[in-house]
Structure formats: structure tokens, C-alpha cells
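S1.2 Input.
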Amino acid sequence: MARIPLEDNFNDVINKAQRGLKISDADLAQRAEVTAEDLAAVKAGEPIDAVIRRVARHLRLSPAALETLAHKRWYPQQPIFPAGFAAFNTPYEDMTVNSYLIWDARAKIAAAFDTGATCEPMLDLLRAEKLRLQYIFLTHTHEDHIADLSRFAAETKAEVWANELEPAPLAGAKAFKENAHFHLGPIAIKTLLTSGHSPGMTTYYVTGLSWPLAIVGDAVFSSSMGGSATHFAEQYQNDLKKIFTLPRDTVLACGHGPLTTLAQEKTNNPFFAR
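S1.3 Output.
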């Protein structure tokens, strides 16, 4: 199976941070003491280490992690779940998007997180494992994450849930407040409001599987984070306080890009490595 590429390149990270902090090119070049030409080259994807490190310090990014990303020296080691968890990566326009299933093998009940571009692979697994889908949880209601929601809900008859701050995704969908709790047999699911990329962006913290699991949507990506031109600080602080305080062995199931772990991101994510 081909590995899923990282969601962002190093220059994407620079652009996200710069846009979020509202720092112009001219101001950034002056602060970092680099030429406008070198800054433009780096922002276009040329990995000039000295410029990357200078710029990183003025964008609150880890210079070492950003340089590592620029040279593609690291890819997250993929955690293994022997049972009860599956990830799906489906193409949507010019990108791919992730969705996830968790289940209790004894009770044969399951929960889905987002639909991706198509729910067909999830339906196939539900049939193969003879699982009943009880819940469809939405990290947020951007189109790429709920593209096949109507079909998925109709075919499974599962309850659809999203944070009350998100636009209603579907007639009959239910809304929860912060810190809602759900259960699938011995599996516990807690909601954490990690807004910024969207008003009701929700991280679902799951315990009772092989590893603690945080399904984070577009709040965090491996080596990056969800962008927002208007609520960048809110997204960053929510990530820091609600996701990066979870146990270090927590698996992060992101809306785009590969699976990762909190421990790996604390070392390799330019936004959060220190």
C-alpha cells in the first residue's frame, strides 16, 4: 500500500504561520534579516537552510523541525491497531481526505468519523465484519469531510452527530455541547472543542482500543496544523491545550495525511516541537 504523503510541505507551513500571524513578506524579511529574493525562493519551495532557520524563529516555528520537513528527512512511524480501528483515504478533487471506523468486536457495534469523498470502503468493512454502525461523528462540516454523508446515513441508519457550533450537516443530525461522552461497549469517546479551522471543529478522544486515539480532523496534521486566515491563534491554542496535553502515546488520526502519534509530533511538528 502506497504511504499517504504529508499534508503540507515546509513552505506550506511557512505560509500558514505567516498568514496566521499576519506578517507581511517585507516585515518577515526584515525581521529575519534575509533578502526579499531569498524569502521568495523559500516560499516557492527552495530549501535554503539558513533562510529557513532564520524565518522559523520569527514565525514561532521550530527551526530544526522545519529544516527536517524541508528535506523530507522524516515520516511518522505508523502505529498498529490489531483490531477495532480502520483508516480510509479517498480522493477528493486535487487532494485526499481521511475517514475512520472504530468498533467493539464483541458487541459488533461501530462508530464512523467523517465520510471522506466516498463511504464505500467503510460500507465494505462494515459488511465484512458484520458490524452495526451506531454513530457517525463529524469532526467538522467542510465538504471534503462529509461528501458522502447523505448516502452513508441513509444506508446505515446511524445517528449523525456534530458540535453545536458547526453548520447543520444534514436534516435530522444531532448536536452536542463541549465534553460530550459516548460509548461503544468498553470503548469511551469524549468530545473536545478544538475550534479555529472551523467554528465547531471537534477532536474525539477515544479510549478502550489498543492505543489512546484522538481523531483530530483538520486541527492537526503530521508536521503541520489546520490553517485559518482569521482564527489561527484560536486553533493553535486549542491544539496546544487540548490535544498536546493528551498522553504521549496517543495516536493522532488526522483529516489529511498519515497517522502519527503525539510523541512524534512533539519532536517533528514545526508548530509544536520545542
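S1.4 Remarks. The chain has a mean pLDDT of 97.
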